Amino acid sequence: MDNELEPIVRIRQLKRDRVNFVLENVDLAFANSLRRVMMADLPTVAIDMVEVEMNTTMLPDEFIAHRLGMIPLVSANCDEAMRYTRDCTCTSTSCAYCAIVLKLDVTCSDPVTMDVTSNHLEILPIQDYDEHEGGEELTKRSQDFGLPVGKNQPNVPPILICKIRKGQELKVRCIARKGIAKEHAKWSPCSAVAFEYDPYNKLRHTSYWFEENERDEWPVGENGKEEEPPRDDEAFDFNAKPRKFYFEVETDGSLGPQEVVMKGLQELQKKLANLILGLKSQPEVDLLTAGDQGMDHSVPATNNWGDAGNAGAAPAGGSGGGWGGASSAWGGSTSPRTGGGGWGGSPGSGGATSAWGGASQSAGWGSPSQQANGWNV
Hints:
Blueprint: E1 8-14, E2 18-24, H1 28-40, E3 44-55, H2 61-69, H3 78-81, E4 100-107, E5 114-117, E6 122-124, E7 160-164, E8 169-179, E9 190-196, H4 214-217, E10 244-251, H5 257-279, H6 282-290, E11 369-371, E12 374-376
Antiparallel strand pairs: 1-2, 2-10, 3-8, 4-6, 4-8, 5-7, 9-10, 11-12
Keywords: DNA-directed RNA polymerase, Nucleus, Transcription
Region (Disordered): 298-377
Domain DNA-directed RNA polymerase RpoA/D/Rpb3-type: 18-278
């Protein structure tokens, strides 16, 4: 296929807590799937249990517990640095491998109102675990792992929990656990994930309500500068499909925007790989388990995120590609697979000339074709 059909990523703006990029040559289903995975399927750490020892504030225990649960905690590399509680072998409710214990103990002794914020939360050390258990999770955590986002940073305002007056006290013990937003929204790493396509509504997916003039009452946004405006005499194409999407990913600080996007691609790839594996016949599954066939999930160590100056990246897969090659703008050691492909590979056996799939697929993942003995991908 032509190179113009390969997936292209172009970073337009990159900040500490958000990224704006253009995704081209994919279909609407993939773009929306990526959006949903980034919002609901990436693990983070959040307060899951609150033990109230003393509360003489004006707010009830449930109110304070809900506010504590919604405070974002630093969760970088959470998928490797912490276990799910259901997967942990500990017998207690809070071992160091599957939980983080935080303490909040504040008393107001001044005659003025005092703000209780996320800066008052402190991590307690946990001693009831076996260091010889063989777990490597503790070594993969950053120094501020589990702390509230922006704690003691001068340019980041803390999150207000409640206000207390003289003589009032709040003392609680919090247990933070690993989870995903499908279980509860507090585990979502994103504040908002949105994408736009077809800013001029050439596909007529939107019906505008207007009083006098549609163009005046529905002005085109900044993304309209990326495309040619339609002509008045242009015929409507019934077979046209959106192929260019404008993404805006904003995080709550628990994960960086680059980690959200790259881990989102990894999770989406894993889901598709599991689906393809489930569609294979039993003999093919036996071959996979025997080691005759397999899926390449290795990650390169040479790809790193570039600075914001690499925003105008070339098509993925080239030496200056958006996500992929060693000199890419995004790249990253968390890239879903190895090879010279732009984004990382499909569940198949990728090749150097493929954007997502193998060497026999110069663009796209390739649709599975049904054979007499099952599904062949």
